[in-house]
Amino acid sequence: MANDTESVLVDTSVWIDALRGRTSTVVTTTQELLSNDRVLTCGPVIFEIKRGLRQPERNKIVPLFDALIRLAFDDAVWDSAGDLDAALRNNGITIPPMDVIIAQICIQHNVFLYTIDEYFRSIPGLKLFAP
Prior knowledge:
Layout: E1 8-10, H1 12-20, H2 24-35, E2 39-42, H3 43-52, H4 55-66, E3 69-71, H5 75-90, H6 97-109, E4 112-114
Parallel strand pairs: 1-2, 1-4, 2-3
């Protein structure tokens, strides 16, 4: 589990839950992470958020992501993510490809992932944030 100073990449599943106010603990935890300047993002999360937003929401929400630190990734992440996905599938585990990339970005940067998607628990070497 992350300590009180470590940065955390917030997954799309958490953003959707928090922005819609679905689960009070997710909303509160996300607000605390934001208040403590601990939230990270990455290109795939931005992609997933933007593709699901309607125009009125887009004008309010997209600028919020511009204020976050965006973790960069290079060809090594793509290569590693492909290897990771193949290994998972060989073990009978199927995870959406974009989420494999998000997981690999977290692994490469050695940061925690805050998610509500249970299948991330199947990924070896991925540090999951537990509020």
